[in-house]
Amino acid sequence: MTTFAPGRLAIVRIGPSRKVALRDFVHMKATPNHNRLFTWDKDRANNIQVGDVIVFILGKSDDTFLEYFQIEHDLAISERDGNWKSQQPYQTGNGESSVCHRRVIQMKALTNATITQWSDLKTRLGYSPDCATWMPRGTTMVAKSRLQDTRTLFH
At residue 3, does pLDDT exceed 80? Predict the structure, then answer.
């Protein structure tokens, strides 16, 4: 069973309309390094740390699936992929800052998750019970208080 430290779960939503983020995710999955590690950039505040788990919410809002990764390495800004945006925000209408300050992380895929649908994880975390379609925007760090029932997300 895989466990992680309370307060160290990040959620990233990549919807089908987010063409740049989806392209980058597909590229990431297609290009693991020789150790089967995948490269991504950190959140806007560079808070993600080695050992954290990131769950990506993918697919249409009524048919999502989850992919989990655990951070293995924290790399320098100079390791940013040349295909990534750097001098502007990732999404229009989502901030005005460039993303060139974001550090790089390498992560391993976690394939033994017990929760594979966003609706189930959302319920387990206690997020927005009155709004069935709610999903986070950008990268959201899950509060420690919401993780009490999630220490066994993996077999």
Answer: no
